[in-house]
C-alpha cells in the first residue's frame, strides 16, 4: 500500500528536526505516531463494524472517545510540558497527515464498503 510509504517518508522527515530543537522532534514523532495508531485502529474498528450483524452504540461511543483521547492527550501533554514536547510540532504532524490523506484520496480510488 502506497500510503504506508508516505507515512515512512513523513516519519523520516522529522529526523532533521532533531538538529533544530529536541522538543520539536519529539512533538513531530509523537504526532506522527498518534496518526499512524489512529489509522491502524480505525481500520480494525471498521473491519469489526462490517463483520457484526448488529450495530453497537456502546462500541461506537467507545471508539469515538478513544479517538478523541488519542488525539487530545499528546496535545495536552505538549501544553503542560512545552520543554519536552512542542505543541506546534504535534499539530503540524496531525495537519500534514490529514492533508496527505486528502490529496491521496483525490488521486487514488480504492474499493469501499459503501453501497
Distance between the termini: 23 Å
- Could you tell me the number of beta strands? 0
Outline, from the CA principal axes? Answer: flat
Uncertain runs are none
Largest sheet: none
Instruction: Give Rg in angstroms.
Output: 16 Å
Q: What is the mean predicted local confidence, pLDDT?
A: 82
Order of helices and strands: HHHH
Instruction: Tell me the fraction of residues in β-strands, as a range.
Output: under 5%
**Oligomeric form:** single chain
What structural category arises from helix and sheet content? Answer: mainly alpha
| Helical content class | over 70%
**What count of helical segments does DSSP give?**
4
What would a concise description of this structure say?
The chain has 115 residues and is an all-alpha fold.
Fold blueprint:
Blueprint: H1 2-13, H2 22-51, H3 57-80, H4 87-107
Helix pairs in contact: 1-4, 2-3, 2-4
Please tell me about this protein's structure.
The protein is mostly helical and 115 residues long. It has four helices and no strands. It has helices at 2-13, 22-51, 57-80, 87-107. Helix 2 crosses helix 4 (87-107). It is flat, with a radius of gyration of 16 Å. The two termini are 23 Å apart. The model has no long low-confidence stretch (mean pLDDT 82).
Amino acid at each position: 500500500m502506497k500510503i504506508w510509504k508516505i507515512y515512512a517518508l513523513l516519519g523520516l522527515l522529522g529526523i532533521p528536526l532533531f538538529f533544530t530543537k529536541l522538543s520539536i522532534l519529539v512533538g513531530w514523532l509523537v504526532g506522527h505516531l498518534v496518526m499512524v495508531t489512529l489509522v491502524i485502529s480505525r481500520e480494525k474498528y471498521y473491519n469489526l463494524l462490517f463483520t457484526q450483524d448488529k450495530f453497537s452504540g456502546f462500541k461506537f461511543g467507545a471508539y469515538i472517545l478513544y479517538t478523541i483521547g488519542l488525539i487530545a492527550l499528546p496535545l495536552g501533554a505538549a501544553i503542560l510540558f512545552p520543554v519536552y514536547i512542542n505543541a506546534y510540532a504535534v499539530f503540524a504532524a496531525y495537519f500534514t497527515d490529514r492533508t496527505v490523506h486528502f490529496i491521496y484520496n483525490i488521486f487514488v480510488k480504492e474499493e469501499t464498503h459503501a453501497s
